[in-house]
Design a protein that fits this description.
This protein is of the alpha+beta class. The protein is built from one helix and seven strands, in the order αβββββββ. The protein has one helix at about 1-20; strands at about 25-30, 35-45, 55-60, 65-70, 75-80, 85-90, 95-100. The chain has a four-stranded antiparallel β-sheet with strand order 4-3-6-7, with no helix packed on it. It has a three-stranded antiparallel β-sheet with strand order 1-2-5, with no helix packed on it. A hairpin with a 2-residue loop joins strand 6 and strand 7. It is globular. The termini are far apart.
Length: about 110
């Protein structure tokens, strides 16, 4: 009985941390700079930095055109590919977001 009570207390105490770990998602916005480049801003919905998260730009065939990481300012810039493309931000642990290039405007 003591083991069960101890386990119950541990689970109860851990619940707020589990909820916190899953409580944020990625936010991604990209802007066509009008000079054949695109700049994307990224952060987690709780305001924490997305610095170091991987960004991939895929063409319509699914080939990676360019890739890199979000910098310390929360940004990643790349040369705008010709044709259709998709920007993917991978924040790890199931946190991923995609943005269709058609939605990226000046």
């Amino acid at each position: 009985m003591k083991k069960f009570a101890l386990l119950a207390i541990c689970l109860f105490c851990a619940m707020p941390f589990a909820a916190t770990a899953q409580a944020h998602s990625l936010a991604l916005s990209c802007l066509d700079n009008g000079d054949a480049t695109v700049t994307c801003d990224a952060e987690f919905s709780d305001g924490s930095s997305a610095a170091g998260c991987e960004v991939r730009v895929n063409n319509e065939k699914g080939d990676i055109v360019t890739s890199g990481k979000i910098d310390q300012d929360g940004e990643y810039s790349f040369k705008k590919p010709e044709g259709a493309y998709v920007v993917t931000l991978d924040g790890g642990e199931g946190h991923s977001i995609q943005l269709d290039g058609k939605k990226i405007v000046q």
